[in-house]
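Aim 2 progress update. The chain analyzed this quarter is reproduced below.
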Amino acid sequence: MKQFFKYNGLSIVMLLLFVLSLSAQIILGFKARNDEIKDQHGKPFTLSEYLASGHFIEATFENWESEFLQMAAFVLLSVSLYQKGSAESKDPDKEEETDKEPEPKEDAPWPVKKGGFVLTLYKNSLSITFFLLFLISFVIHFYGSLLNYNDDQILMGLPVTKASDYIGNSQFWFESFENWQSEFLSVFCMVVLSIFLRQKGSPQSKPVDAPDSQTGA
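Predicted structure tokens:
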């Protein structure tokens, strides 16, 4: 068990932090939404009803959407764009291992040995997967936002809105862009700050004694 944690500790801890954070979001969101409903003299949600409500779905997937967009954009843009001195960038003045064509070595992943279309897909599988996760989260966010918007409309005694009309609603796009801008800012900070700042022991940082001009970790 000790050895298993040694080799998988980073993913295990991040998963635990995700579960704890999501649990706190559910508990606090459930209370906050029911407080809003009570103020409008509506019927409060049960916990199971809340988990299927637009309030929970919208809040959860608008964040997932922005995270996956951030990662997809960063993975893809870092293929051809550089930042001199950043630990998060390839060196523009030399060929990187990641730019070399894959070789079907004995220990290579099976798509590399297979070749052809499978290999072409595999060579871009990380960015493709992040973009697919972004699109899935975007669609579910839209569904949850529409559901939450119509719940509010019903509470106020107003007519509900169709999906075809809501796609152009400023509320939905505000929810997206308020998250997107923060994700792009965080990547910008990571790229630029890693030029001048260090974290001993982290693969996201250059060695502490490395010059600011050194590019890549």
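The longest helix spans residues 2-39. The mean pLDDT is 94. These observations will guide the mutagenesis experiments scheduled for the next reporting period.
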